[in-house]
Amino acid sequence: MVHRGRPRAFDRHAVLAIAMRLFWERGYEATSLADLTVAMGISTSSLAAAFGSKERLFREAVDLYVAREAIGNHEVLAAKTAKDAVEGLLRRAVTRMVRKDEPTGCFVMLGAINTSPENRAIVDYLVTQRRAAAEAIGNRVASGITEGDVAEGTDAKVLASFYAAVLKGMALSSRDGASLKELNRIVDCAIAAWDALAKPKQTTTCRENS
Questions:
Q1: Quick one: fold of 10-70?
Q2: What pTM was estimated for this model as a whole?
Q3: 90: which of 11, 23, 42, 207 lies 20 to 30 Å off by Cα?
């Protein structure tokens, strides 16, 4: 007769969502295993059996957050022009940074700040996620160049880095208490800079003296 292990008495996805919220609100290092087990309503041994370790739990929490936040981004990035797409992405991010009944800011931006050296792998994991966001913006700008709504010669990577930096700044501002109105004003300013940034690189030509 085969004896099977006792089934888990909890919903793995549900407790992962609880962990995600806790990590998002407090950050990786400020969230202890005791904090997690109490909030998730499971024992330390159950947490280890289901997720392996605190670091692996954090990574799964980040993946859950990214998957949840990415819903709808494809449609936003498919806007008629690259400028509209980037503005839509920024506006959408703003509404998510100040949602009611959710931690403020962005988990990917704020989940591991000023961590100790032994947790460098956690920082690197979030850096990878942030780079993916900048890459998505850069790809959309590049498409705009191909389609003709962004001037040829525009440095798509620099433009993407600028708007990714705006996202990072707004994440911190929202955590500091910035309102939806204040964040949207930041977006207004960022988009006002588009025409100055989305243009060919300046080149220098020399004329021979006559």
A1: Arc Repressor Mutant, subunit A (1.10.10)
A2: 0.85
A3: 23
